Amino acid sequence: MQEFNPLEPNNGSGEPQAEPQPQPQPQPQAQPGPAAPEQTPPQMKSYTATPYDHYNVLYSDPSYATAPPPAPAPAKQRKTVSLSAAIITSVLVSLISSVLAFVVLVYGLGLSSQFANTPDQPTASASEVGHSTTNIVVDATAQTSAEAVAEKAGPSVVGIVVTNEVSHFFYGASSSAEEGSGIVYSADGYIITNYHVIQSAVESGGTAAVYLPSDSENAVTATVVGYDVSADLAVLKIDKTGLTPIEIGDSSAVKVGQTAIAIGNPGGMDFMGSVSMGIISGLDRTLQLENSATEIHLIQTDAAINPGNSGGALVDSAGKLIGINSAKIASEQYEGMGFAIPVNDAVTIVERIIDNIDAPKPYLGVEISTYYDASTLQMMGYPAGVVVSGVMSGSPAEQAGLQRGDIITQFNDVAVTGYTQFNSEKAKYKPGDTVTVTVYRRGQTGTLSITMGTANE
Fold first, then answer.
1. What is the pLDDT of residue 309?
2. Which of the following is catalytic: 156, 181, 196, 292?
3. Which domains does the chain possess?
4. pLDDT at 84
């Protein structure tokens, strides 16, 4: 292959019934008998009698003829009650009703539990009712589980602040700070966080500091031990001992619907140690993070995760770490969609980074231009990758045939989108390992095998 310059552009009725009328009572009929002799009627004084209809009766009774009319019933007197007495009465009635309802409820629950525990009571089988049933056991301490988890895992979640010094031609020097969260991995000072939390410390020469929950006012200087851009993970080290490491759980045993609690610093250090509670919404979600060219598999949760929570802990109801909070979907059309790196994957990467802290560093012998990033190359018509600006004489890269101007697009089948990711992929291997590098050169793509050397040779 010949030398080439990548800067040359390519191309959802009843009607109501009448009341029954009283039927008139039949009058007694006169009995037949012998005819009486005619007599001259005696002279009688005139008088006035009280008519029968005054008593409203339908039959003759001598006692009614002489009984006096009934006296009218006395009118009822309306009683008045004061407003205060009415209020007191209403309150007493409400209290008595509440007590009675409570007694009935407790008594009913006691009976239901008694019947539920009686072995002689017949129960319908799943086949009889046509479906299977699941018994749900409610934890009586569920209302205080978040408090217990916060007390257990809270001391293991720290704050991270990365400060950058920026120089302006017109405005002079200024500083900016980025804030996030981290997790105490070991008692001797190893801290886990997301790579994007400390990215500016790696790429722009910024400084990282850790704030412990036991002393949130004083910063502890941290050094970057290592990172894995493709997994969005990084490890820091502080000169402290006696820290409280978090208890590691098992992300392979996590189930959808179980309790999930996020602990971190949403919004920055002003809200350090915030706790939010939700459930596991999904497993094995594939998402491409901003700083990664590869898709990674994440745990989905609806526990509130906001900027500043990155690098913090996602724990279960026992306070065990099940994920590293890493991302959320931020949009007006989405709500409650946060994601965390499964702890089993994170521990594997973290252990590798820590184990390699004092190991010899792998060496390729290439210089990479930081001017041409992936987006710049694609705008110019080239594939995304990193541009080789120089090859060291006698280096493994030169021996493998790598040339100045080559664009490295893949490193052991992992897409490369920038200088930092290239270094991150290279750090996964040790001296003596052979890797395959995919190179774009003058419109053609090929592969080169490079055996890594040692950086101190």
1. 86
2. 196
3. 149-238 (2.40.10.10), 251-346 (2.40.10.10), 362-454 (2.30.42.10)
4. 60
